[in-house]
Hints:
- By secondary structure, this protein is mostly helical.
- It has a domain at 47-134.
- The chain contains 7 helices and no strands.
- α6 runs antiparallel to α7.
Amino acid sequence: MQRGVRDTPEAQAIRGFSAAPGLSASAPPGLRELGLPEGAALPPVGERVAWATRHSFLDGRGRDDRRAMSSPRTATEGCSRLRAHLALGTISMRCLHQASVARIAATTDRHLAYALHGFASKLRWHCHFMQKLEDQPAIE
C-alpha cells in the first residue's frame, strides 16, 4: 500500500482487492477470525520439519497422493504437506524434485514409484507455469 493512502473500501476496490466481511485488509486474521479456538495448535515449522515431512512422504506416505488429494478427509495425511515449506523456503523445489526422482529410482514398490512420478510431474508443471507467468504476465 502506498504511503498516505487510507485503507478504505474505495481504495481497496481501486487496487482490485476487498477483504472478506468482518476482516481487515491491512492485518492478517487471528485464530478467532478464522474460526479456530485461541489455543489451537499450529503446525511446527522450520527446515528440520520440512525435511522430516519430505522423508515421510517419499518413504511411503505419498503412496496414495493422487487419490488422497481429491478429498479433504484424506489429503491431510496422504498429500505431501510441503506447500507451506516450499512457499516459505524451508525446502527448495529443486531439492524436493531431486529427492523424488532418486526415491523413484531406488524403490521396488511400483505403486509408490507411480505415485511419486505423478508428484514429480506436478513439481515440474508448477515450475513451468511459474515461468510462463514470469514471461507472459498478461495471461494471469
